[in-house]
Amino acid sequence: MIPETAKLKADELSGEELIALVYEMAKEIKELKAEIARLKLPPSTSKNSSQPPSRDFKGEKKNRKRSKKKGAQAGHEKQERQWVEKPNKVINVYVDTCKNCSQNLLDQVPVKVVRRQVTEIPEIKPVVIETRQFVVECPCCGERQQGKLPEGLEAGRCFGPRLEAIVTNLHHEHHVGYKRLRQMCSELLGLELSAGGAVSIVERAGQAALEEAEVIGEQVRQSRVIGSDETSARVHGKNWWQWVFVGEHCEYHVIVPSRGYAVIENFMQECEAEIWVCDCWKAQLNAPAKMCQICLAHQIRNLQGLIDKRPHLAWAREIQALFRKAIHLRNRQEKMTERGYKRQVQMIEKRLEQLLKRTFKGLGRNLLERYRKYRNSLFIFLHRTDVPAHNNACERALRPSVIHRKVLGSFRSDWGAQGYAALTTVLNTAKRNGQSAFQKLVLLMGAPVLPFLSQASCP
User: Fold this and answer.
1) Angle 197-199-204 (CA atoms, 0-180°, nearest 5)?
2) Mean pLDDT by 10-residue block, N- to C-terminus, for the chain (459 residues)?
């Protein structure tokens, strides 16, 4: 603020007071100019920073003029529902007589058959299998003996694997809360399920996935190329972190209170990867690996943020274009000759060296220093086909967990977070290998019980 002395008349101030006043005003003007410049900078979005798209400002959508043409627009491929080759029921509809002259037409060969298919789901009713263990007393020694329950109908089991897989799939894969889950079971399956029953099913699924999840974790540790990323999670109402480690056709998840290097160290144990793919988070850059590939998708967004703030900085535009050119070159590698591809790689490497020799001051200097420091971590993907240019695989692996957090909120217990991470590990790995998540859950939940239906007898 301007000093109170500024309100006095100039002839009432001494020379020293006037000089002091001018210095104060000059200082305030400089601060205000800096604040104005800061307010004029474009806001951070998912396109010019590492900010997730969910945090972007969602403005009102402009009303688009819709085409008056009905059906698919020009250029769109025609989409049709696929026919079921072996329908469960076929109903033939014949023509008996001619509507015009009443001629009998039953013996005529059809000139055309018009096919239509109607798909329906039969009424879903749960089936209940009751076991009755007979206890008899030995006439010789007097000791009582009890019949042994078959596998799949063990004591303490209340639900079959298919039912448990449906409940777990709805909660874990489709983010359905326990209250809505009970309602869906009642309305769709005709099953009255208590809140405790739903919780126990999901808990049992998490425990069943723990052993297989650790096997998958060992496969990731032994991978030559490992990618990693992390996102926030809520456990007991506090901020925790969900980490993902992606190997070849497998991924491992863990939810812990830390975002530091100790998480990577505990996971890798004594193993060391050849290449570690990650963003520029310090803990990941120090991962136990011979080399590190920095995600260029993150760098392109960061450079876009710099371009938005300093439009006249040619270096930012040139190095951003070089990163895009390198990714495009890698995507076209299979269509190029080996000699032509290597020549293009050499040109890109040479151009990068030239750009890193540039000097400038102010905003963006941190990116220049980053690329100088991690020069050898920028273009590894151009020399190895098993190394991606980005860590999008890790981000895609974490995206369902972000939705789960936003919809259902916090995990209320340690086993909830642990079981969720184990299930995510097993099911995501199954999907990476072309398997169905639901069928994987059915196998995970134990021996089937439906075969006992043909053996069961009514009282």
Assistant:
1) 95
2) 51 77 87 75 67 64 61 71 89 90 88 91 90 90 88 87 94 94 93 92 94 96 95 93 95 95 94 94 92 94 91 92 96 94 96 94 90 95 95 94 93 92 96 95 91 67
Main-chain phi, psi angles of 274, to 5 degrees: -80, -45
Identify the three-state secondary structure at position 232: strand
Give which of 217, 240, 193, 199 is closest to 419, Cα–Cα.
199
Token digits for 416?
């909830």
Positions of E strands within 110-247: 135-137, 144-146, 225-235, 238-246
* Spatial CA neighbour of 304 closest among 41, 39, 49: 49
* Predicted model pTM: 0.81
Separation between Cα atoms, residue 175 and residue 181, nearest integer Å: 10
Contacts of 399 (CB under 8 A, 6+ apart): none
Q: Which of 318, 370, 312, 307 is nearest to 348 (CA)?
A: 318
Which of 220, 60, 131 minimizes the C-alpha distance to 455?
A: 131
Q: How far apart are CA 148 and CA 135, in angstroms?
A: 10
